[in-house]
């Protein structure tokens, strides 16, 4: 039986637990399906203010589940294999929860399944799990107990025995509940079936306001899909504005708001276009126009209007329904970091770093009682709620370094008058600190002009130089056989 996952391409983290990239998958279509599911689910899900639950959600059948503060993954199961894949291409295998999932599915007679799950950390103090805990334990576990606390909440079916899920969610939920109700580390996400917005509002008060859970996810085959969380109030610095066009000329269009990073720089937080009265739009535009400041960085709003940057003098309160830290492909959402020079009264762009996308940001009021200083408008307002990579790093010091080639070997062979080339590279990216690159990459290319596909490639990534060198030697040993000569 061919395997879907090559564990040799994964990095050993602790014991049997390994993780790595999607290059370990024999079928890249798995990653494509996971990314497509995440994209479609994100497009369908509507953020809803809790105050709108009663008026927006009429009589119907609703499947309402707790919003788990974890990391979205797909659980892939086929026979003797069970592993996780997230939309960013991170693959995890050998976790205790995966062994349990494999036993449950196999004992139920299931041959193949891909399930939408939330990977979360079951905290020993019984408090609400946080995505920070998941990231820490999954990236660098402290102990076997750490791994045993990584758990799964199953909330949807992507594939079941080679077939898509039932178009009626009630059927999907019944399957999930019947399969995993007996699980310990893997369980159905806590959920209830409700009939209207009043019942959902009452459940919000019970689960979110009283028990402190993150929010609710609401599914209806008729009404659609929604998520609702407590609205967040953020105090932010105004760093730019745009003016309306046509009949809105002479009025504010939107504001560009930022927050103080721990290093004293400003990071763009949100474009705030709603919540103003017409009088505020007129008076704000007049006041802000007199505060214009030069900048070597330019940004445009969704209507392609360029922001006029201003002195960082205003603090405003912004209400948001939610924050997103990743794209549907699990890539970080990067926002520009800016540095204000008080001597020249000008802005300078530093670099883009991971931050958040604010959902439905809306202006609440001017905060004349607050000053533009780190203690009044810190990025911590957001980073305490969601995990933001590199938030504690000094943005000015995170300068992109050039990669460094550590090993390079090229071999050739002549066959039927044609020269075949096999090249092996090992390099250090020097970009691992920005969270976008692995520390070491081993790359193999095989060029054979006589083949139907002349150029073939393979790659390994790792955070260990020792493992990278082992990958390099393995590539050479497996692919440089009789008749090959080293070039150079």
Description:
- The chain contains ten helices and 28 strands.
- The protein is an alpha+beta fold and 488 residues long.
- It folds into three domains: 222 residues, D-amino Acid Aminotransferase, Chain A, domain 1 (2-Layer Sandwich); 166 residues, OB fold (Dihydrolipoamide Acetyltransferase, E2P); 83 residues, no CATH class.
- Strand 15 and strand 16 form a beta hairpin.
Secondary-structure map:
Blueprint: E1 11-14, E2 17-20, H1 29-44, E3 45-47, H2 53-56, E4 62-66, E5 71-78, E6 81-85, E7 91-93, H3 96-107, E8 112-121, H4 131-139, H5 144-148, E9 150-160, H6 169-180, E10 186-188, E11 191-194, H7 197-210, E12 216-220, E13 224-228, E14 232-243, E15 252-260, E16 266-272, H8 278-289, E17 308-309, E18 315-320, E19 322-324, E20 334-341, E21 346-354, E22 357-359, E23 362-366, H9 380-383, E24 404-415, E25 418-428, E26 440-447, E27 455-462, H10 465-479, E28 485-486
Parallel strand pairs: 3-13, 9-10
Antiparallel strand pairs: 1-2, 2-7, 4-11, 4-12, 5-6, 5-8, 6-7, 8-9, 12-13, 14-15, 14-17, 14-18, 15-16, 16-20, 18-23, 19-22, 20-21, 24-25, 24-28, 25-26, 26-27
């Amino acid at each position: 039986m061919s395997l879907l996952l090559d564990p040799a391409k994964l990095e050993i983290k602790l014991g049997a637990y390994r993780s790595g990239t999607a290059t370990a998958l024999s079928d890249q279509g798995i990653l494509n399906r996971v990314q497509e599911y995440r994209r479609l689910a994100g497009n369908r899900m509507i953020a809803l203010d809790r105050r709108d639950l009663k008026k927006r959600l009429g009589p119907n059948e609703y499947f309402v589940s707790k919003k788990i503060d974890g990391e979205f993954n797909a659980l892939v199961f086929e026979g003797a294999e069970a592993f996780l894949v997230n939309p960013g291409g991170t693959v995890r295998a050998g976790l205790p929860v995966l062994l349990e999932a494999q036993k449950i599915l196999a004992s139920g007679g299931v041959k193949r399944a891909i399930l939408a799950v939330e990977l979360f950390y079951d905290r020993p103090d019984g408090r609400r799990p946080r995505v920070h805990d998941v990231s820490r334990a999954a990236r660098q576990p402290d102990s076997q107990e750490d791994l045993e606390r990584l758990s799964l909440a199953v909330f949807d079916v992507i594939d079941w025995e080679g077939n898509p899920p039932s178009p009626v969610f009630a059927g999907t939920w019944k399957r999930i509940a019947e399969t995993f109700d007996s699980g310990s580390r893997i369980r159905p996400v806590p959920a209830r079936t409700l009939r209207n917005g009043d019942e959902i509002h009452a459940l919000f008060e019970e689960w979110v306001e009283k028990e402190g859970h993150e929010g609710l996810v609401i599914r209806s085959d008729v009404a659609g899909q929604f998520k609702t969380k407590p609205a967040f109030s953020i105090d932010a610095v105004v760093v730019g504005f745009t003016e309306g066009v046509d009949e809105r000329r002479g009025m504010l269009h939107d504001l560009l708001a930022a927050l103080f990073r721990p290093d004293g720089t400003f990071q763009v937080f949100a474009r705030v276009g709603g919540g103003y009265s017409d009088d505020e739009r007129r008076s704000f535009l007049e006041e802000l126009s007199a505060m214009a400041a030069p900048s070597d960085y330019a940004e445009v709003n969704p209507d392609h209007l360029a922001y006029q940057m201003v002195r960082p003098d205003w603090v405003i309160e912004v209400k948001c329904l939610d924050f997103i830290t990743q794209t549907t492909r699990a890539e970080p959402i990067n926002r520009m970091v800016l540095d204000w020079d008080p001597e020249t009264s000008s802005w300078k762009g530093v670099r883009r770093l991971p931050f958040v996308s604010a959902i439905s940001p809306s202006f609440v009021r001017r905060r004349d009682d607050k000053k533009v200083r780190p203690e009044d408008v810190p990025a911590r307002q957001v980073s305490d709620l969601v995990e933001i990579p590199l938030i504690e790093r000094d943005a000015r010091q995170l300068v992109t370094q050039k990669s460094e080639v550590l090993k390079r070997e090229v071999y050739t062979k002549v066959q039927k008058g044609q020269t075949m080339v096999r090249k092996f590279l090992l390099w250090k990216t020097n970009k691992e600190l920005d969270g976008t690159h692995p520390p070491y990459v081993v790359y193999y290319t095989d060029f054979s002009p006589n083949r139907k596909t002349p150029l073939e490639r393979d790659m390994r990534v790792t955070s260990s130089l020792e493992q990278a060198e082992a990958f390099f030697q393995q590539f050479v040993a497996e692919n440089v056989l009789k008749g090959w000569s080293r070039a150079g």
